[in-house]
Amino acid sequence: MFEAQFQSFDEAADPSQGAPRLAALRAALKEQNLDGFLLPRADEHQNEYLPPNAERLAWLTGFTGSFGFVIVLTDKAAIFVDGRYTVQVRAQVDGAAFTPVNVAETRPADWLRENAREGQRVGYDPKLHTLEGFERFEKAAKLAGLELVALESNPVDDLWTDRPAPPLAAVVLHEEKYAGEAAAAKLARVQAELAKAKADALLVTDAHCLAWTFNIRGGDVKHTPLPLGFAIVPAKGRPTVFIDGRKLSNAVRDALAEATELAEPRDLETALGTLGVEGATVRLDASASAVAFARALEAAGAKIQRGPDPIAKLKAVKNPCELNGARVAHLRDAAALARFLCWLDAEAPKGELDEIGAAEALETFRRETGRLKDVSFDTISAAGPNAALPHYRVTRATNRKLTPGFFLIDSGAQYEDGTTDVTRTVVIGEASPQMRDRFTRVLKGHIAIATAVFPKGVSGAQLDAFARKFLWDVGTDFDHGTGHGVGSYLSVHEGPQRISKLGTTTLEPGMILSNEPGYYREGHYGIRTENLIVVGPREIPGAEREMRGFETITLAPIDRRGIEAALLTAEERSWLDAYHARVLEEVGPLVDDATRDWLARACAPL
């Protein structure tokens, strides 16, 4: 009945190959008179989702998470992950070959300084390291007496005999009815920012910024409609887009040529050299651009102006057309999600449904909207202890039946008018008192963010504790951010806006973020409640400052069976009841009678 077309449940990497591949890498390094190698999980664009030919870290180690870093030395090797993956890395990686390290406890550069020996030569691929990140290794190498060696050829690529070819997905135009602004107008705004910064040109290496600026989309990486390429935007004159011409139809080529010059990616190095000859001041985002590009500019004579890519902030603030599209997309998605949750409530108690079956069903309901372009990430369909892994990905090897307790499903969709991301934790059978306590504390944190009112100029870091307070009260927490930015038919994880301890970007009206506190009891269960929210103005009588707040645009019932009502304040209960009334009012007319009846029960006042 159900099937998945946009995601696979096969295991992508084989951890048993870790030891022999590590041995082969060490042998290759020895041939080059190298004592070590630095390998980030990255491509030239610093994408979160990588094209298959860039999944070097997964090929070497077996680890398939979205963040990882490996340091290989002659006698030891370490794989660094963040708090989302501390359990997953132990399951996927041969611990005898690679020692897992939590990056929050030990940074890779510090580990290198402490474990490498003076005089050793450590290689790196300069196209995979950001300038900012690499400078930390330079400092560590200087302290430890190491030599860092830039390699022209990545040794992993040389060993990876069946490495996939680079992607060549067709580039498509993102119509102005979805984008809300012509590429020429966007370019004018970018060039105005460059003029203010007194920069002669901007080097664009982030494919999301490329896609947004030129109103193009593609399919070079899974789940995010990205065309991989680069651009140079001058403060005056026509920009140049460097993209493989085989991706461009005549119609797309003609449309792009109205606002930009076109060149092949191999021409970028020459163009950087030209900027150097001209003595240009080039804006470069040191946290997102590869050290190779910075070194090329410097060697040619250009002056590097370090600073955020101005496109990232412009892209983060959605225009009215994009916001309207997001609301429409979320309403469409809500109907599919309601159908799924109704179906799940009927099927889960039978005891035969498993994680893959649930993920396939939800994707199918979304496809039946007729508008689904892709899922926005691999669905996190997690039962029992699997839900305690915040970024669990179900495979045929890990697939579990949905048994009594909590079932967590975190999923999203890519529609041309908007990108969605929603998590619900569903009670199957009975939830224990402790489970209801933790579920309710997560909900209280979610409501605290949803109802937050704050002055202009506040960042996500200042709000993050709102979501954690009720878990802190009982001595626990969660190890991921409270919220990430979301793109407009782009990345489901968009910067620079976020709600986290590191979220220093000011929250501006028009930004879309997630609101997703959680709780994870390793080996038992996990809880997360996630809606998407939009920053907007708030009118407060007598206010002395310009205020901001959030509009919730995700519309799906929160499972009342998991709530310990006594823990909620009257204000929190009022918020929940009003939210459910809105869900029923807006989603009810879009679904069949059976789903509408279920929705009425799920959205009843607490």
UniProtKB/TrEMBL annotation:
One of its GO terms (molecular function) is aminopeptidase activity. Keywords: Aminopeptidase, Hydrolase, Metal-binding, Protease. Residues 327-535 form the Peptidase M24 domain. Residues 21-149 form the Creatinase N-terminal domain. The keyword Lipoprotein does not apply. This is Aminopeptidase P family protein. Belongs to the peptidase M24B family. It holds the Pfam family Creatinase_N. It comes from Chelatococcus sambhunathii. The lineage of its organism: Bacteria, Pseudomonadati, Pseudomonadota, Alphaproteobacteria, Hyphomicrobiales. Residues 547-606 form the Peptidase M24 C-terminal domain. It comes from the Bacteria. PANTHER family: XAA-PRO AMINOPEPTIDASE 1.
